[in-house]
Design a protein that fits this description.
- 40% of the residues are buried.
- An eight-stranded mixed β-sheet has the order 6-5-7-1-8-17-2-18, sandwiched between helices.
- It has two domains: 270 residues, Alkaline Phosphatase, subunit A, CATH 3.40.720.10; 99 residues, 2-Layer Sandwich (Gyrase A, domain 2).
- It is 26% helix and 14% strand.
- By secondary structure, the chain is an alpha/beta fold.
- One of its GO terms (molecular function) is hydrolase activity.
């Protein structure tokens, strides 16, 4: 797979310190108040007054300085700005723990006090305006792009559900046959290099491959009813193993706040509660790692897979409303919303269907029609990287933010949340936080696509990755160099 030739945006350099100000803090007028010469007694009084005032000010300044520095900068705790990766103190080799909080829209970290997530942010490296999901901004395509460094057409998971047009087989989120899952995920890359990996509920991790057989003790089969605490405890228990048996790469997955987002949208108090709970799990993890003395040795990467936007029934487009221009039978439609995917029979021109649908949508006679635009997949914006797979249906519709498509009108009235839209929408962004020996403290980097994470992790682990769509040099712009 050819690497992306567009280099990442360089990280802006820190602003230079402002020149030292030489403006006096206090200004005294030494000219006499009048032309009359003051008496000796008056001069003496003024002299001692100034002397006393100056002495008092100096004493106050010294006292304040002693109090300030004694309370903020203690001996041995002076701030150190690292320019190279920190040397490991307890672990014998680098370890990466990759955490996903499903549907964690960028900005959720400010919905409530999240001290543990912000501890990682403040002492680590953050994508300042969020992580860019791949298109479509759905759970399975994005988790597998993070794991492989590939865009969906190349790793094969082009949607959460789709049909193979050749075999007629249907892919669902419980499909674990290797034929669906292309590319080389991180857990296979790691084991191929003779190292140990462990996965906890990462999409694709249950699929058995040439160098990965989903080992019983290191590959958890998905079960959404497993409490979050149990998941964290399982990961922490890996660090109780002998040092040469600790997996060098681990994944940890939480369904929240995506679950709540679909039910109530991104702005409901339920989202805030879910975010606080995720923060508590991060706190539990940090505490467990600290108790084992390895927190500062572990490279923690916390991400989400996509964002979330509010939806409501008043923002609907009905395919049946296009009947005066073209009929779209339901059996042509593979996905309705928020990515409209249509595969007409081979004998029907897809180009004609697109033209007639756009004519109707732009006529002003279809409710909300101007919020949907149809494309032949080869005419989609190239930035979406959504064409080079026979699995992708020939007709794709892009919706404006918050709008949905249905076949026909119904009486149901519901509001909630959705994702899957164009990844150019800011609402589809999620988070990237890196904390550990190879991440600088308090550093902000520009937003980047999640296909870059694969190379980031292989660089930390010092192993050669498989061909992917990430940029080879990207890691140099985010990670600290070795000492």
């Amino acid at each position: 797979m050819a690497s992306n030739q567009n280099p990442p945006t360089p990280i802006p350099q820190e602003e230079q310190d402002l020149p030292n100000s030489k403006t006096a803090l206090l200004s005294f007028n030494t000219d006499p108040p009048s032309t009359h010469k003051p008496t000796f007694k008056t001069n003496k009084t003024i002299f001692f007054s100034l002397l006393f005032t100056t002495f008092t000010a100096v004493i106050a300044a010294i006292s304040f300085a002693v109090l300030f520095f004694s309370s903020t900068v203690k001996p041995g705790h002076e701030p150190i700005i690292r320019t190279t990766a920190r040397t490991l103190t307890k672990l014998p080799h680098p370890i990466v723990l990759l955490i996903s909080s499903d549907g964690f829209r960028f900005g959720y970290q400010f919905k409530a006090p999240t001290p543990n997530i912000h501890r990682l942010i403040n002492n680590g490296t953050e994508a300042e305006l969020g992580l860019i999901s791949v298109f479509p901004t759905l759970t399975f395509p994005n988790h597998y792009s993070i794991a492989t460094g590939l865009y969906p057409p190349y790793h094969g998971i082009i949607n959460n559900r789709f049909v193979d047009p050749i075999t007629g087989d249907k892919f669902t989120m419980s499909s674990h046959e290797p034929k669906w899952w292309l590319g080389e995920p991180l857990w296979e890359t790691v084991t191929k290099h003779g190292k140990k990996a462990a996965t906890y509920f990462w999409p694709g991790s249950e699929v058995k491959r040439k160098f990965w057989d989903c080992p019983v003790d290191y590959c958890m089969l998905y079960n959404g009813s497993v409490p979050f605490e149990d998941r964290v405890n399982t990961v922490l228990n890996y660090f109780d193993l002998p040092s040469d048996e600790i997996p060098v790469f681990m994944t940890l997955y939480f369904e929240d706040p995506d679950h709540q987002g679909h039910q109530v949208g991104p702005d409901d108090p339920e989202i805030t509660k879910a975010v606080v709970r995720i923060d508590e799990m991060i706190g539990k993890l940090i505490k467990g790692l600290e108790e084992r003395g390895v927190f500062e040795d572990v490279n923690i990467i916390m991400v989400g897979d996509h964002g979330m936007v509010g939806t409501c029934d008043k923002k609907l487009i009905y395919l049946d409303d296009l009947a005066p221009w073209v009929e779209i039978p339901s059996d042509w439609v593979q996905n309705y919303t928020p990515l409209l995917a249509i595969r007409p029979p081979p004998e029907i021109s897809a180009a004609d269907i697109v033209a007639k649908m756009n004519e109707g949508l732009q006529s002003g006679k279809v409710e909300n029609g101007n919020n949907l635009k149809m494309y032949l997949k080869e005419d989609l914006p190239s930035r979406l990287h959504y064409v080079d797979s026979y699995r992708i249906p020939p007709i794709i519709g892009l919706l404006e933010e918050s709008f949905k498509v249905e076949q026909k009108k119904s009486n149901k009235m519901e509001c909630g949340g959705a994702h899957g839209y164009d990844n150019a929408f800011f609402s589809m962004r999620t988070i990237f936080i890196g904390h550990g020996p190879q991440f600088a403290e308090g550093r902000k980097v520009p937003s980047f696509e999640n296909v870059q994470i694969y190379n980031l992790i292989t660089s930390i682990l010092n192993i050669e990755g498989a061909p992917n769509n990430g940029t080879d040099s990207f890691s140099n712009s985010v990670l600290l160099p070795d000492a």
